[in-house]
Amino acid sequence: MKVxxxxxxxxxxxxxIGASMLVDAALINKQITSKxxxxxxxxxIAPLYLHVIENNLSGVDYDVLILPDGERFKSVDSLNLIIxxxxxxxxxxxxxxxxxxxxxxxxxxxxxxxxxxxxVKFMQIPTTLLAQVDSSMGGKTAINHPxxxxxxxxxxxxxxxxxxxxxxxxxxxxxxxxxLAEIIKYGLIRDKAFYxxxxxxxxxxxxxxxxxxxxxxxxxxxxxxxxxxQDERETGIRATLNLGHTFGHAIxxxxxxxxxxxxxxxxxxxxxAADLSMRLGFIGQAQVxxxxxxxxxxxxxxKIHKNIKLEQMLENMKVDKKSKxxxxxxxxxxxxxxxxxxxxxxxxxxxxxxxxxxx
Length: 359
Ligand code: NAD
Ligand code: GLY
Description:
By secondary structure, this protein is an alpha/beta fold. 46% of the residues lie in helices and 20% in strands. Residues 42, 44-45, 48, 69, 71, 74, 101-105, 107, 127-128, 130-131, 134-135, 138, 140, 150, 167, 170-171, 175, 178, 261-263 line the site of nicotinamide-adenine-dinucleotide (NAD).
């Protein structure tokens, strides 16, 4: 088992990475200091893993909230269900929320923890690859608004993260591939050696080789944590973790969060960011081709969904948290392994990129 510490002074916490950790009651209980616990999960994950967590909680007053599955339930209605349950159960400020699931459950439960009685503890038990390498750590919590993704949220850190690679065994292939997009992101934005490792080992990851997956998760977490501890509230460098996300969120919003997975949209968005970087002269065509090739090997989409229009993309991109005083900053590439945050692009180049991907 590997342990990575997210070093944020009094908000520091461990990320545990390894196989079969969730059956280790002693390990989990070490992080449970509360006597009132609400486990939040969904109807897909509950039948698979809820009993494993429950077995660790003997003698504790715990309750379970099982939500419907899907991005559209990362909503104010689901938030209300969590808060209502906590109030009904008379849970107080020392309670603990456990998020058992992927990024949807993690973001939603984290935000509920940030809101309930002005902030209670929460623990992340990420069960998707995407959540294990990205959403479960770093403290971004949120719900969606019909007009924009993650528009309501808070920076609020968990007290511990348990990334058990064994649970990835039940993850559908498409979800695993979506997680690979965020892994590729770390190579692209700040870790060229890891990017090269991914080029050499992509087939092992797709075949779910446990050693390769564990290494990729650990290296991704190390990259993410290194950025988060420098810029927890995203005043600067943390925005690089959003490579491809401005394009990706615009795609997801245009599709009402239904047809594409978040990781798929991010994968396509990263290639769009590379294409725009090339049009602006920051990188060459050979680097764009290299990125496209790795995304294709990860079986991620490299063209925008056919139902989306240029104007829709441009309009949706304006609703982005990287906009400052009406100027949209984008994360682009100066090289593989080197991201920049810039508003130094032309509308014409941006339009050309989008039109090219609408194809
Ligand atoms: P998800 O939470 O919807 O999970 C994907 C699917 O896999 C769901 O159907 C889920 O029920 C199922 N599932 C989860 N674990 C499983 C398992 N072990 N076996 C079988 N099925 C399983 O999606 P996701 O990709 O994990 O997360 C996407 C969300 O994360 C988006 O809302 C995105 O905005 C958010 N996100 C947040 C951050 C952050 O920093 N907070 C970063 C990246 C993404
Ligand atoms: N997933 C982007 C971030 O945590 O900043």
